[in-house]
Structure formats: C-alpha cells, structure tokens
C-alpha cells in the first residue's frame, strides 16, 4: 500500500560526465530498462520534465521525458502521439530534422538548479527514437515537447542550456553558475532527491 521513498542522484554543472559525449546503447537489456525506471524516479524526485543519461551519471544515449499535456492546446503530430505515453524512455534518440522557425524561451535544468536563461531553438523538430520495447518512433514535434527534446539531446553531446545562451545573458548568470560549480565540487557534483 505504501511504498518506501528512494533516494536519487542527479549530477550538477561541473561534473565531468556532463561534458562527455554519451555512448550509443547497443542492446536494450534488463539493466537498461531498470536504468530508465530509476531515471524516471530521479526526474520525478526533482519535479523535472526530462532527464538524460549523463545527468544521472551514465554516459549512455538514453533520455526520459515526462512533458505534461495541456488541455485544449494545439498539438503537433508528435505531441499527440507521445504525450499519452509519458513518462517515456528514449533510447539512442536523435533529431533528424528541424523546422525553419526559431523560438526564444526561458529554460532551466535539473543539473543547473536555480538558474534560468533564454535560449533560441527551432520551434519544431523531427524526432526519431527507439522505445524500451524495441519499436522505433519517428514524428514531428512542437511546443514544449520539441524544446525538451532538444534540451535533453544536448546533454547527450555534453552541452548544457547555459552553453546556448547569448554572451550577454550568460554574463548575467555566470556568477551564480560559478557558485554552483564551486559548491558542487564539495559534494562531488551530486544533488540528492527522494521520490
């Protein structure tokens, strides 16, 4: 009836794993399924909508997503297909195309807590991924889902959202980021949460 809460770890800015290019997953094993389940738990422990393998300390190309569906909002085909599947795990995800329109929006990150900044990204993406059951999904995504996909896939290539901010905006958050990295070093860049 009552399940015990579990402690999860997310790595913060300054951790070497966040700057590495993640490795492709060759086979979906029970260990990969368990990793996905634990990553969903970590994402929920920190009230996130996405988490990439490197943020969980694993240099593997895996992302979990839990983007909320907003009632009455227009949905791209990808949102209509994927939002009902949330939370979901994406194995070796990739962006195989981007729309021409750009959109600026504020972003935050579980690995860069308490820091937000504006990032310009394509408004739509064509997303392709393998699911835990081995099936492959390819669809056009917009809205918050498209932004979340781009943000999380950046993590797989060692890129944080602060790396995509304009130089002027980055200068504004730089002191806070340096404090985060300094404090993080004392905790081995580990942030603990329970779910």
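Sequence proposed for the structure above (195 residues):
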């Amino acid at each position: 009836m009552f399940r015990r809460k579990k402690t999860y770890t997310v790595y913060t800015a300054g951790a070497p794993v966040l700057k590495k290019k993640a490795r492709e997953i060759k086979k979906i094993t029970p260990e990969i399924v368990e990793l996905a389940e634990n990553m969903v738990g970590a994402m929920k422990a920190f009230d996130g909508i996405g988490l990439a393998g490197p943020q969980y300390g694993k240099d593997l190309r895996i992302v979990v997503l839990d983007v909320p569906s907003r009632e009455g909002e227009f949905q791209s085909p990808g949102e209509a297909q994927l939002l009902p599947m949330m939370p979901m795990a994406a194995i070796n995800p990739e962006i195989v195309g981007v729309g021409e329109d750009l959109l600026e929006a504020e972003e935050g990150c579980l690995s860069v807590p308490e820091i937000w900044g504006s990032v310009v990204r394509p408004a739509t993406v064509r997303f392709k991924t393998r699911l835990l059951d081995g099936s492959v999904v390819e669809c056009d995504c917009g809205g918050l889902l498209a932004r979340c996909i781009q943000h999380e896939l950046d993590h797989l290539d060692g890129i944080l959202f602060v790396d995509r901010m304009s130089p002027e905006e980055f200068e504004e958050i730089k002191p806070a980021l340096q404090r985060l990295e300094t404090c993080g070093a004392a905790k081995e860049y580990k942030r603990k949460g329970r779910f």
